[in-house]
Amino acid sequence: MGEALIRGMLKAELVTAEKIMVAEPDSSRQQYLTSQYGIGVTALPGELASFAQVVILAVKPQIMEPVLQQYVAHLDESHLIISIAAGVTIAAMEGVLGDSARIIRVMPNTPALVLAGASALSGNRRASEEDMETAKALFSAVGICVEVAENLLDAVTGLSGSGPGYVFTFIEAMVDGGVLAGLPRPVAEQLVLQTVYGSARLALETGEPAAVLKGRVTSPGGTTITGIQVLEEAGLRGTVMTAIEAATQRSRDLGS
Ligand SMILES: NC(=O)C1=CN([C@@H]2O[C@H](COP(=O)(O)OP(=O)(O)OC[C@H]3O[C@@H](n4cnc5c(N)ncnc54)[C@H](O)[C@@H]3O)[C@@H](O)[C@H]2O)C=CC1
Ligand SMILES: O=C(O)[C@@H]1CCC=N1
């Protein structure tokens, strides 16, 4: 996800490559990032802290605490700390960095890579209005960005953070359905991706509720309502809701 943000921010021309440095312990990843994006790389927390005014934490939640311990001696109130880690609370980060740290949590998603991300953020009391505007500018450059209360970030993670995973699973299933109906897979893939893209654009650009837009597809006694009946009988809606609640709970568990 960190790389998606790098690519998105460079593509949005929000920052130039020389303004970005990545702390990455894996030397092969270091070489890849430098050659791919022309950005600075280091394995040294001190070098990163000296270079950056905004530090984006994009390591897995399971290792956030030990990683913060590596940085605590190098970070101070001059740094804006932005974490994209699922579940890791501001309080947990303040527990390592101290309660004078300026911390903002953001939950983005991978479409940020093509400037179509969905992010939500929440800051601690030390994060100034300017800090919040900085974070909003960073993540608005790669999609939409909304502010929520921190206790809703688990729901954001379960919904839009993980959401591309649900959508890609549905896309896979639709493509397989097209193949089952006799279409060559490449043709089915092309049609499915455009259908999902077009449907999302139709909803975004008309602002009409999904139920209304669905109504315009479901001809009486037609094919669509026949297919939807199967989805409803299989409990599609309830299953999707349960999946999002389960992912939300996983986010809570990662933070506990
Ligand atoms: N993958 C996604 O769609 C999203 C992920 N996130 C969050 O982003 C974070 C990263 O997730 P992924 O990108 O999926 O994991 P990842 O494993 O692809 O990336 C984590 C990166 O951290 C690096 N790393 C490990 N130890 C390090 C250290 N000591 N110092 C610096 N870098 C270190 C790894 O080399 C790796 O490149 C997680 O906290 C996740 O919750 C948030 C939103 C969406
Ligand atoms: O699956 C995960 O834990 C990460 C956080 C949201 C999307 N991917």
UniProtKB/TrEMBL annotation:
NADP(+) binds at A58, V59, K60, P61. Its main location: cytoplasm. It catalyses: L-proline + NADP(+) = (S)-1-pyrroline-5-carboxylate + NADPH + 2 H(+); L-proline + NAD(+) = (S)-1-pyrroline-5-carboxylate + NADH + 2 H(+). GO terms for biological process: L-proline biosynthetic process. It is an enzyme of class 1 (oxidoreductase). Belongs to the pyrroline-5-carboxylate reductase family. PANTHER family: PYRROLINE-5-CARBOXYLATE REDUCTASE (PTHR11645), PYRROLINE-5-CARBOXYLATE REDUCTASE 3 (PTHR11645:SF0). This is Pyrroline-5-carboxylate reductase. It comes from Desulfolithobacter dissulfuricans. The lineage of its organism: Bacteria, Pseudomonadati, Thermodesulfobacteriota, Desulfobulbia, Desulfobulbales.
